Amino acid sequence: MIVMDTEETKMLNSLTWRPLDGDVLLFALVVVAPYQAMQNFKYKVKLTPGIGKRGKAAKSAIALFQRNKLANAQEINLLKVLATDDQISRNIPGKVRVSAPQLNRR
Q1: Ranges for the NFACT protein C-terminal domain (predicted)?
Q2: How far apart are CA 37 and CA 49, in angstroms?
Q3: Helix 54-66 vs helix 73-84: crossing angle, to nearest 10
Q4: Is residue 54 part of a domain?
Q5: Contact call for residues 54 and 96 (beta carbons, < 8 A)
Q6: Is residue 63 part of a domain?
Q7: Residue 81, domain member (yes or no)
Q8: Is the model's pLDDT at 3 over the cut of 60?
Q9: How far apart are CA 73 and CA 78, in angstroms?
């Protein structure tokens, strides 16, 4: 059994999936999980089996998040950093399709 010390616990408790306006955001983290587990996340897309490449799917999702009208400047800056990271698609399964209600809106 692994026991975490108080510093590790404090750090894990500081992670949030729905940042508030007063929160100071230090970084963005890509999470791949079942869609039902992410119902309360502010930024989410649904990945389904398809013919698209995972790198393109990741870029498509980030572009969608950047167009979100509810995103503040701090969140948009963190999304820009994610967009330049080539490793964000590492955990996305190959051959996927990105689905979201607002995906095709410009």
Answers
A1: 6-99
A2: 18
A3: 160
A4: yes
A5: yes
A6: yes
A7: yes
A8: yes
A9: 9
User: Which residue is it, tokens 């979100």?
Assistant: 68
Separation between Cα atoms, residue 44 and residue 32, nearest integer Å: 9
Total structural domains within the chain = 1
Q: pLDDT digit string (tens) for 7-29?
A: 888 887 778 778 877 888 888 88
- Copy the structure tokens of residue 86: 């080539």
Q: How many helical (H) and strand (E) elements, i.e. helices and strands, does the chain have?
A: 3, 2
- Token couple for 9: 């616990």
Which residues span the domain enclosing 86?
46-106
Whether 86 is covered by a domain: the verdict is yes
In this structure, is the dihedral angle defined by the CA atoms of residues 88, 49, 34 and 1, taken in order, positive or negative?
Answer: negative
Cβ atoms of 30 and 87 closer than 8 Å = no
Alpha-carbon gap, residue 65 to 31, rounded angstroms:
14
